[in-house]
Structures are given as structure tokens and as C-alpha cells.
Amino acid sequence: MSFLSRFLSSLSLPRGLNRSRRQGPPPCDCASPPQQSRQAKAIVTRRNAAWRGMLLPIVALALWSVVAALHLVKSGLLVSPLAVLQTGWQQTVSGALARALSASLAREASGFVIGTLGGLLLGSLLGFSRIARRMVGPSFDTFKQISLFAWIPLISVWFGLGDAAKVVFLSLAALLPVTAHTCDGIHAVPRSYIEVARAFRYSRLQLVTYVILPAALPSIFTGLYLALIYSWLATLGAEYLLVSGSGIGNLLIDGSEQFRMDLVLFGIIVVGATGWALNALARRVERALFALRPFGAP
Predict the structure, then answer these.
(1) Domains within the chain, CATH numbers bracketed
(2) What does the DSSP assignment read for 231-279?
(3) Which region ranges are annotated with the description Disordered (predicted)?
């Protein structure tokens, strides 16, 4: 027995080689970064993108200040940023800005809500009903080719020049994109989704709730986003053309009539900032709703 054990030990590999084989290859240090590190990098990337987006406005403001300070343009059409800032402070302290902005936003919100509800109903009708699509679809396709401002004379005759006419005009501005994108979103649902739902014997309500609506939701949100933008732009157009009442558009008109470029430029800045805020709010609401994922299988 001792002879056999000595013979087997003589045939064994060297001790170092055996240890290396038993231990296997050395561990790799290329582990994936932790989740927290990736989130921190994503936050830094978004911040850098935001700063890069601010580069052009900062450069434009610096050039504007230099041209105004050196009097390179000798015209009353060019005022300094300091004059615009002073005018903005006066408008804010006096309450004129708050009154004008609140009036414009109230009209925009009213027209957006009315037009969105009408667009969702009409778009759903055109999307689900073949009879409605054949009877109403051609008329709607013709209606949306008419310029929105072409309805101003008719609206002013029917509803006057007050807030009612402006809200009707804004409702039309919101109605068109919501209707078109709701109808297109319903039509774009893949046929395979519907066939699978029917194979599982979904009812029509379940089919709409758990299949068609979630699949069409991105297109519907695109229509709502465009309706928000169009209604804000139409707010200014309505206040320009239907001049009765107060609003940001009327503030711009007063500045141009009084040849006050500081007031005009301040109004333009307020319009751009408000549009940017509405855009950011719409994007945030959209991300929050999609993150909730309220739709699921029954």
C-alpha cells in the first residue's frame, strides 16, 4: 500500500501547478459600476447639457450689452438690457405684468381644456367608428386645411371681441392636433395586439382599456403637447387681432404704439419664458404619467 501511494505521488503534478489549477484564473477587476455611480453621471450629463443650452443666450446678451453701451447703433429701436430690466421691474411692481399674464394664461387654459376634450372625443369617434370616419373624416380633413386665422372674422361677428371669442379661437387651435393624433394613435395600434387580446377573449372595454389606449397613449400625448403650444401661440394672435381686454399681446401692442422698445422687448421675453415654462411642465407631467404605468393586464 505504501509502495502504491509513493508511485501515485510521483506521477502527480508539481505542487505549484496544482494550486494554480485549483484556484483558477485570478479574479477580474472589470466589475460594472454601481447603480448610484451611473445615476450621478446621468445627473452631471443633464447639468452639462443645460449649461450648453444657456451658452447662446448668454453670448447674445453680452453682445447686446456691448452694442448698447458703445452706441454702435444710433437708433431708438435698440435699447440696453438695463432699460429692459428697469421696465420689467416697473411692470412687476405695479402689478401690470401679473394682470396681463394672468389674463392670457386664463384664456389659454380655458381654450386648451375645451379644445382638448373636444379633440379627444372627436378623435376617439373617428378612430373607433368606421361610419364616423367615412361620414366625418373627409370634412375634418378639409377643415384642418383652413388657416386658423381665417376664422377670426367669422368668430368676431358671432362672438364679438371679448373673451368668449378668444376662447373659441383657442379651442379651435387645440382641437385640431388632439383630434388628428388621437385618431392616428388608435389606427396605429398593431393588428397583432388586437388578435392576441381576442385570443384571450377580452371584452371590448378590456380591449380598449388594456390594449388600444396604452398603445395609442404616446400619440395622444403628442397631440396634447402640440395643443398646449398652439393654444399659447394662438393666445397672442387672438389678443393682437381681438384687441378688447388685457393680456400679454395687448402689452406688446401698447409698447409698439408708444414706441417703447423696452416694453416690447420685455413682453417678448415674458412670452418666451412662459412658453418655455409650459413646455417644461408638459414634459414633466408626461414623464410622471408614463412612470406610473397605470395600465396593465387585467
Answers:
(1) 105-292 (1.10.3720.10)
(2) HHHHHHHHHHHS--S-SHHHHHHHHHHTT-HHHHHHHHHHHHHHHHHHH
(3) 15-36
